[in-house]
Amino acid sequence: MDDTLSGRHIKAARAILGWTRRDLAGRAGVTAETVKVVETDKAQLAALAPTRAQLAEALEKEGMVFTTGGAPGVQLVPLEEGLRTDQLNA
Questions:
Q1: Radius of gyration of the chain from Cα atoms?
Q2: How far apart are the C-alpha atoms of 12 and 6, rounded to whole Å?
Q3: Closest by alpha carbon to 31, among 51, 12, 59?
Q4: SS3 breakdown of the chain: % helix, strand, coil, rounded to 5?
Q5: Is 24 helix (H, G, I), strand (E, B) or coil?
Q6: What gap in Å lies between CA 31 and CA 23, rounded to an integer?
Q7: What is the pLDDT of residue 41?
Q8: Which residue from 6, 9, 2, 3 is spatially nearest to 75, judged by alpha carbons?
Q9: Element (DSSP H or E) covering residue 64
């Protein structure tokens, strides 16, 4: 994940998945209010970087891919059928 990931990326990815703030919060281990703060952070505060990364990780587990730089955006890449490595509990 790139440091230029923004709250807009998080919000857009959440919208593509059809998740509420509460849905994302539960999957990322934060509060819905925290999700709101990150999504509305226009200044991309450095103090919120770890939380942005935590939210992005939860979204990436569902197939979201973030692009930054010249063409910022989000894309849903369908997950492969079957078990993923993060689902193994051996």
A1: 13
A2: 10
A3: 51
A4: 50, 10, 40
A5: helix
A6: 10
A7: 94
A8: 9
A9: strand 64-67
> Tokens standing for 54?
């935590």
pLDDT in tens, the chain (90 residues): 445 899 999 999 999 999 999 999 999 999 999 999 999 999 899 999 999 999 999 999 999 999 987 888 999 988 775 555 555 565
Q: What is the pTM of this model?
A: 0.81
Residue 7's Cβ-count burial label (10 Å; 0-12, 13-18, 19+) is buried
The token pair that represents 63 in the structure block: 């197939």
Side chain identity at 11, as an amino acid letter? K
Q: Are 17 and 76 in contact (CB under 8 A)?
A: yes
37: amino acid identity, one letter: V
Which amino acid appears at position 69 of this protein?
G
